[in-house]
Amino acid sequence: MSGSPSTAAPSFLERPDGACLAYRRVAGRAPGVVFMGGFMSDMTGTKAAFLEEHARARGHAFVRFDYRGHGASSGRFEDGTIGRWAEDAIAVLDALTEGPQVLVGSSMGGWLMLLAALARPARVAALVGLAAAPDFTEDLLWASWDQPTRDRLLRDGVVHLPGTYDDAPYTVTRALIEDGRRHLLLRGPIALSCPVRLLQGMADPDVPWRTAPALAERLTAADVTVTLAKDGDHRLSRPQDLALLGRTLDDVLVKASETMVEHSATA
User: Fold this and answer.
1) Strand order in the sheet with 29-36
2) N or C: where does the chain have the smaller number of CB atoms within 10 Å of the terminal CB?
3) 160 catalytically annotated
């Protein structure tokens, strides 16, 4: 890919329904890295840029992208659901990557990386979750609302919640909540066997830190590690957080590379 990560124009992946997903891709060796951002986030954030440079410096392929209705991708945010965004993530994995991949998911992206891994287990070498928020539509939104807010959503089909990090409100649709219920994961075992690393701030105001151990308990994989940063917030974008992310990614890339060599030797 030519140009610096911050200035290069994105490319676009066209979906069968006409949606166009913006992405940036760095060529490199496998295992590659795919970053999946959070709710109302885009691929220009601090963690995405850091991961691109980290992968580039080590010669690994890397992809970051925007779900439909996010960032530079086409579509309205209000039309998005967990299922549609998971389909976008799987499409990126299928069309823009080769060989085993390490999926890195932030917040809602942690839910989507799990859904993508369940759909394409043979393509996923490892998972890294950053304040991963599976089931957040049900457990962190619907469950926390008072009855008037629930009634307004059911009546109007949408509610607008105060934004946490900027002036833009969070738009939550009835379709998002109802579709989320079709993709809940924490109610039973999550049948994945790849290594999983979960990084979670204990001072996170959006995703309770106990979500990470609960997720680890549900995963059937044996190699699962939870790392808690006591003063870490939801974004996990401080220099020390990014350094931890880099070390964590290096660890799973080494493991995945060793597995690739073992498979090649026995093929």
Assistant:
1) 11-14, 20-26, 60-65, 29-36, 101-106, 124-130, 196-201, 224-229
2) C
3) no
Q: Cα separation of 250 and 57, whole Å?
A: 11
State how far the Cα of 47 lies from the Cα of 53, in Å rounded to an integer.
10
Domain boundaries, the chain: 11-134+188-266
Point out the catalytic residue in the list 73, 135, 234, 241.
234
Where residue 1 falls among pLDDT bands split at 50, 70, 90?
A: very low
pTM value surpassing 0.90:
yes
pLDDT digits 0-9 by tens, 23-57? 999 999 999 999 999 999 999 999 999 999 999 99
C-alpha span between 123 and 144 (Å, rounded): 36
User: 124-153 burial, b for 16+ CB within 10 Å, e for fewer?
Assistant: bbbbbbbbbbbbbbbbebbeebeeeeeeeb
Residue range 11-134+188-266 forms a domain whose CATH class is: alpha beta
13 phi/psi in degrees, rounded to 5: -105, 120
Which one is catalytic: 66, 135, 179, 204? Answer: 204
Is 204 designated active site?
yes
